[in-house]
Amino acid sequence: MKPLFLVLPLLLSGAAFSQSTNWTEVNLALTDAVVIPDYQAFATATADMNQQAKSICTSITPQSLADLQSAFQLTMDKWQAVQHIQFGPITYFNWNYRLQYWPDDNGTGARQLLALIASKDTSVLGSEAFARQSVGVQGLQALEQLLFTEASLGELQTDAYRCRVVQAIAANLDEIAAGVALRWSDEFRTTVATADERGFFESAEDATIDFLKAEVEPIRSLQQQKLEAILGESQVGARVKRAESWRSERSVRNIKINVASLGRFFNEGNPALNTVLPPEDIEGINASFTKVEATLAALPDSITQALETESGYNNLKQAAADLSALFELLEASLKKTDLYLGFNSLDGD
Amino acid sequence: MNSAIQYRASSWWVSALLSVGLFSGCMTQVAAPVAPATSAIIDTYISIAQASYGDALLTAQQLQRAVNAFLAQPAAATQLAAQEAWRAARIPYQQTEAFRFGNSVVDEWEVRVNAWPLDEGLIDYVSSAYGTESDNNYFYTANIIANPLLDIEGISVDAANITPQLLGETLHELDGVDTNVATGYHAIEFLLWGQDLNGTNPGAGARPYTDYSLEACTNGNCDRRRAYLESATSLLVTDLEEMVQDWAPEGAAYNDLRSKGEEGGIATILTGMGSLAYGELAGERVRLGLLLHDPEEEPDCFSDNTHWSHFYDAKGISNVYRGEYTRVNGEKIDGASLEDLIRAQAPALHAEMSARLEATDLGMTELAEKGEAGETYDVLIASNNAAGEELINRIVNALMEETRTIEKIINQLQLQNISIEGSDSLPPPQ
To answer: Which of A160, A215, A219, B168 is the most exposed place for a label (fewest CB within 10 A)?
Structure first.
């Protein structure tokens, strides 16, 4: 029997692509061209929503609620563009989970929100105390639950506490979104620029791997969590309420934005992230992006609406298959490099 | 199996030993560690799997006897004895969890015995605080014990006779919903303790023993509740018997592991360690509860036994790495291990991994001590418990660090294509 370490090096013979990348240039180009502007856009939308929320409780009308709903929709658009970036400042202070606790398989957030509203406890609504509450009541999912039911208008008009919870969430989101944007443009950009010298990343290549994880792993997540978990085995077996943002009728819109953002993340910046992969693979990967986008473009923004027809269901299935194909292309391309993304936090779920 | 375990020196290590002798000039050397053969490491791993699943079965059979005694004579004392037997059964079972990920035979079977979280309203009565509906589950409050016939959203269930087959084949994961947990440790736990209605304050479930009394039945349907508890316990024993067989020579798990070859076997060991430490334990079971400050997010939420379940999960990872396990009868299994290999091949990495395991053990020991002193996991995760938050975060960080070191071991051994179970409540390891 051969000792392990004499056997295993044979496994590494697969890497063929010769890497000559300036990792820091790639990381900074992506940070400046995509990450910072997109987080700033999210922060701007969230600040606007907070401004609207501040005045809503004095007089809640169909129009003022519609305006706040629109502000929510815009905020969600901008959040969906950066949702896939799960490293860096977004991980500080549990900001990622406080912004959006989803998926919530056990309905914990919904249950806790109802308990909070029933408590009428005003002592938890100040920004400091609210930040210590369950992530299930602090973010976009809870706000959606308050703003997007048929009863929302009446409940907000008759229950002042409920309206104050809306304000607390909007203020909380504003504070977090501003914090993430500021940290990226300030301290974390420096961390990325000096990845070879300081402690957070082991090297600039290590930082690139985090960018790559933010590119590749979310594609599997879109396929599995945002589509397959809802679609089940048949149109009648589909479960709309497992979808992200089903209340605000934008589940498919989220995925459209996610895919477009992942495409930009891959291709924008000079040098772009795609330059770390073998050049001969890029055209195929981009064609695969285009295929997913085309499939999604044929669908309405609402997954409820999409699931009403067989063709809609089939298109959603096709989008899941397209995403899987895209993921596999990226994975195959990565295998030609020496870049090891480490533990995949999605496979095996 | 142990007799087959032996250490082999590689030519590389023979060279290394000679080098030490030549250059140190030291005549009274402590022998440098010798790398064990990969096959011997896998043999030890299988030995521990056989012993720990054997113990899980043994203690489940003891639980079954205690449950039968409770049902024969429902009383506070017999209920307590059954609860204690349940706690004892968790000790070896939790240590088997390091075998779950990476071994698909185990992972596919596991949902039958240890599924969590569960919507307990599927099984029995619940308090109003539990709510009446869930976005994900039409059977959230189906209450099988009270309802022999169900017809919800076009799905009919004939539950007139509560049997192991009904629980395992019909009710478990009903409608494809993971939280419809009808079988396993946690279903039994709910039946023995009932809901913990203390929120994040001290105290576990307080189900009256009369819930099982035919003469002085409380909360109705005691005959059906008795049938449920008896069936669920019986099914747990049957399921564990199956897993013991699966690890016996030529069993499904045994053959599957052997078929992966030596590198595949080592990759399986590390996949199990990393997935349990990172996604499952640090993420789903430890951190998520803190993020949500919600006692429902506690794995052993009815019994408040979570501190021990976490402790023995972490111990299971250590067992597998160190190639050692102490059986419930005190017998020790000890053989060639991954630890021996890393110690010989990369001493600094060995020291790092030892430190990581010790840090986790330190945190878990503190968690267990606090739990035994009344400050259980659900108390520690309260939104205003700063000391509890500090401890939970320390444990999560220790497990994350442990995972990073496992990743380094994977790189050291140049293993590829390893997928580690993640968690929605954790960022990827840096």
So the answer is: A160
Residues of chain A contacting B135 with CB distance shorter than 8 Å: 107, 110, 241-242
How many Å lie between the alpha carbon of B39 and the closest alpha carbon of chain A?
A: 7
- pTM, entire model: 0.85
Please check whether residues B254 and B298 belong to one and the same domain: no
B143 and B250 share one domain: yes
Query: Given B237, B259, B281, which residue is the final one in a domain?
Result: B259
Whole-number average pLDDT of chain B: 90
For residue B231, tell me if it sits in a domain: yes
Reported ipTM: the value is 0.81
Domain ranges of chain A: 20-193, 202-335
Instruction: Report pLDDT digits (tens) over A315-342.
Output: 999 999 999 999 999 999 998 998 877 6
Question: Which of chain A's residues have a Cβ under 8 Å away from the Cβ of B8?
Answer: 1, 3
Residue B100 lies in a domain: no
What pLDDT, in 10s, does the model give residues B165-224? Answer: 999 999 999 988 999 999 999 999 999 999 999 999 999 999 999 999 999 999 999 999
Nearest residue in chain A measured CA to CA from B108 = A348
CATH 1.20.1420.20 applies to domain A20-193: yes
Overall number of domains in chain B: 2
Q: What residues have CB less than 8 Å from B271, skipping those under 6 apart?
A: B101, B102, B418, B419, B420
Task: Give the whole-angstrom CA distance, residue A158 versus residue A5.
Answer: 70
Between chains, do A343 and B416 touch, taking CB under 8 Å as contact? no
Domain presence at residue B348: yes
Cα–Cα distance between B51 and B49 in angstroms, integer?
6
Contact between A97 and B135 using a beta-carbon 8 Å cutoff: no
pLDDT less than 50: residues of chain A: 1-14, 345-349
Domain of residue B114 covers 75-94+107-259
What proportion of chain B, given as a percentage, has pLDDT over 90? Answer: 78
User: Inter-chain contact A7–B263, Cβ cutoff 8 Å?
Assistant: yes
Which among B38, B137, B291 has the least Cβ separation from residue A3?
A: B38
Phi, psi (degrees; rounded to nearest 5) at B204: -105, -170
- Higher per-residue pLDDT: B365 or B136: B365
- For chain A, the average pLDDT equals 91
Interface touch B291/A134, C-beta < 8 Å: yes
Same domain, B181 and B283: no
How far is residue A92's CA from residue A252's CA, in Å, rounded to a whole number? 29
Q: Is residue A340 within 8 angstroms of chain B, CB to CB?
A: yes
| Contact predicate A73/A250, CB 8 Å | yes
- Chosen from A2, A4, A205 to mutate, greatest number of chain B CBs within 10 A: A4
